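Review the following:
>
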Amino acid sequence: MISNAIRYSFEHSKIYLDIVNRQSDIKISVRDTGQGIAPEYKDKIFNRYFRVPGSLTEGTGPGLAISKKFIEAQGGHITVDSDLGSGSTFTITLNKAT
């Protein structure tokens, strides 16, 4: 998530990392101030090999799909909140080990 935040942000942008240790889980958020994701692509970005049309950033596209599968295999989940032109926040929630 941090690598994507750096890759898709503008030069000299800030990346914010927030980690919250809650009672039953841990929530990790990565927020960038980059280009953001258009609403029509938000539900597709976790699909394997999907790349936002017109993206100038290099990459093959499977990173988010693989990340989502790995996170869900551990009982967690990942979400995205994004505004086109304002950046994106990816949030991962993982259950604590018992």
The beta strands are 15-21, 25-32, 77-83, 87-95. The longest strand covers residues 87-95. The helical segments are 2-7, 62-73. The mean pLDDT is 88.
